Amino acid sequence: MRCVVTGAAGFVGSHLCELLLARGDEVTGIDCLTDYYDPRLKEAHLSGALAHERFRLHRVDLLEAPLEQVLDGAEVVYHLAGQPGVRPSWGAEFATYVSRNVLATQAVLEAARRVGPAKLVYASSSSVYGDAESYPTAETVRPRPVSPYGVTKLAAEHLCELYRSGFGVPTVSLRLFTVYGPRQRPDMAFSRLVSAAVRGGEFELYGTGTQTRDFTFVGDVVRAMADAAASEFTGVANVGGGSRTSMTEVLDLVTELAGAPVVRRLPTQRGDVRDTAADTRVAFQGFGYVPSTGLREGLALMVEAERSTVPAAAGLLAAAGARS
Ligand code: UGA
């Protein structure tokens, strides 16, 4: 099968490319390697895929790419590219979020409308819910984002629904719940925490540590994407990890697995939701989704990956984490 993956060099994108290649697909990646974090890290993420004869990369911005040409002949388009991160999306940065999350998605949908892939899978986000009215949260709960980032992810999701109902583009929007695993973005909690525990340095804990997340292992997420693409399902579905854990519990787990990190407490950050928890019944009914990697197992894989990272790459990671 021929697939296109936007955001191929990102954390989730690089794992997805590897899964699709392992399944025998022909994969075209699109990524302009933005400097949200060190592009050399993204190149490193892609090294496995780049070595593969069925993979090729277009290093181009979605808003400048000849998208109809690139998407032509693709059976599935996985649209993962975007500007991530809830906390930095305020102020002047918002323009970048609108451009990379809303305008870029509209450009992908316009191209898809013309070339007609069998499925378009959009990587949406649990951040569309904000502080939800109920937990575990079902897709029918009214979305009320509390970050500008969440607003742009929701806008792009609405665009997917519009192109589905208006033009018959078979879109699936997967609301991903705090994805973690090896190669996690250096601005996210687990990569910072595991690095602090394995290599030393401080972990800055925002808020009291009582905030909870439905952390989802990246292997489960990319499997959900491929399974959703292969199914008849269209519409919106949550993809969560199956349990709700506080940051204090995560700290305890990491301490058990890798030793105690030094923790510095900072105030709760604007844009952070208090809790997330996914009701995954729609994903189960739609494409058989059941998360298979528990938090302890997934964190152990992150610790193992951190320990085996060569010092030069670890330096890159630390620098990228400090900058973002
Ligand atoms: C993550 C991603 O960053 C978003 O791109 C994604 O859309 C979102 O998940 C989602 O599920 O929709 P977040 O839940 O904030 O957002 O993920 P983390 O950065 O891993 O944060 C988890 C918790 O740890 C938050 O409460 C955060 O405040 C806290 N945290 C994060 C810290 O205490 N210290 C840090 O250095 C980073």
Describe the structure.
The chain has 324 residues and is of the alpha/beta class. It has a single domain (2-311), classed as Rossmann fold. 43% of the residues lie in helices and 17% in strands. It contains eleven helices and 13 strands. The chain has helices at 11-22, 39-50, 67-71, 94-115, 148-167, 189-199, 218-230, 247-258, 281-287, 295-307, 311-323, and strands at residues 2-6, 26-30, 55-58, 76-79, 119-125, 171-176, 179-180, 202-206, 212-213, 216-217, 235-239, 245-246, 262-266. Strands 3-2-1-4-5-6-11 form a seven-stranded parallel beta sheet, with helices on both faces. Strands 7-10 form a two-stranded parallel ribbon. Strands 8-13 form a two-stranded parallel sheet. Helix 5 links the parallel strand 5 and strand 6 (171-176). The radius of gyration is 19 Å and the shape is globular. The protein binds uridine-5'-diphosphate-glucuronic acid (UGA). Residues 84-86, 125-127, 176-178, 188-190, 192, 204-206, 211, 213, 247, 269, 272 line the site of uridine-5'-diphosphate-glucuronic acid.
